[in-house]
Design a protein that fits this description.
This protein is an alpha+beta fold and about 290 residues long. The chain is about 20% helix and about 40% strand.
Length: about 290
């Protein structure tokens, strides 16, 4: 369930904000003052920097100097920040200003007491598995991505099915005939994979989830694979359309027939700061409204 962080030696606090939310200006200014009053340096991203005294930094540069990063937004903002910091070992505290908030679990009204608790070592750090996603065409490497939630191959054409061959560690698994395919982490099991009929996995597990999107054959079901597997997805046929890879719902690239997407566990997990009293099943009951009629 994660370990307590101990009393953190925090001097530099990164502050990242959801773009296009001018109503956050007051909260950002108030938080900056709160941090400065405690002798902490504020490292804002370009969005937060519109409202801070401190000079803004690009997120990838901010991660080199920050001892931890506070994300003011929703899950999408946190995913973008996690991607920007790459493999740097920087804890992230997500403050939910969006809707569900599976990743950004701290409420807006909990920001100040929660950050005080972080400084006192009363928060847990949860390590969340991430995925390396590599696109290959023949012998060429066309791009690499890191996913905290998922990598999705879908068809851009209307009403066109994809044929996607799946292999793991060199062995053929099957060829899916479906609208697309999702390869997800346990963290991503509550995202697109869940709506496509995939199982829920506790976020502290290490596993790779393969979920077809509307498969043509009912026997082609989701798979849960060990985290040590290397999963290869080959575009066998896009049926006249164009396949597209999307990573964490935010970045990606077009795929051609015979392109291969290779997915494996990333060596550096994301480190999320969560309240010590958070119960995973309570979160699922609340967010997913289990048992409600």
């Amino acid at each position: 369930m994660g370990s307590f962080i101990g009393e953190m030696q925090v001097r530099n606090v990164g502050v990242c904000v959801k773009p296009g939310e001018p109503e956050l200006a007051e909260l950002v200014r108030e938080f900056e003052k709160w941090l400065l009053d405690r002798g902490l340096a504020v490292l804002p991203d370009p969005e937060a920097g519109r409202w801070t005294r401190a000079e803004a930094m690009l997120r990838r540069d901010l991660a080199r100097s920050a001892d931890l990063i506070v994300v003011l937004g929703g899950d999408g903002t946190l995913l973008a920040v996690a991607r920007a910091i790459g493999t740097r070992d920087v804890p992230i505290l997500g403050v939910n200003l969006g809707t569900l908030g599976f990743l950004a679990e701290t409420g807006r009204d909990e920001l100040f007491p929660s950050f005080e608790a972080v400084l006192e070592g009363r928060f847990r750090v949860e390590e969340r598995m991430r995925l390396d996603v590599e696109v290959r065409r023949d012998a060429d490497d066309l791009g690499r991505f890191i996913a905290l939630n998922d990598a999705v191959i879908s068809n851009t054409a209307l009403s066109r099915m994809l044929h996607l061959e799946v292999r793991t560690d060199g062995s053929e698994v099957t060829t899916y005939h479906a609208d697309g395919l999702i390869v997800a982490t346990p963290t991503g099991s509550t995202a697109y994979s869940l709506s496509a009929g995939g199982p829920l996995l506790l976020p502290n597990l290490e596993a790779i989830l393969v979920t077809p999107i509307s498969p043509h054959t009912l026997t082609q079901r989701p798979l849960v694979l060990p985290s040590g597997c290397e999963v290869e997805l080959r575009v066998v046929d896009s049926r006249g359309g164009q396949a597209h890879l999307t990573v964490d719902g935010q970045v990606g690239r077009a795929l051609e027939q015979e392109d291969v997407v290779v997915v494996r566990a990333n060596a550096q997990p994301a480190r999320l700061l969560v309240p010590p009293d958070r119960d995973r099943f309570e979160v699922m009951r609340t967010k997913l409204r289990w048992g409600e009629r």
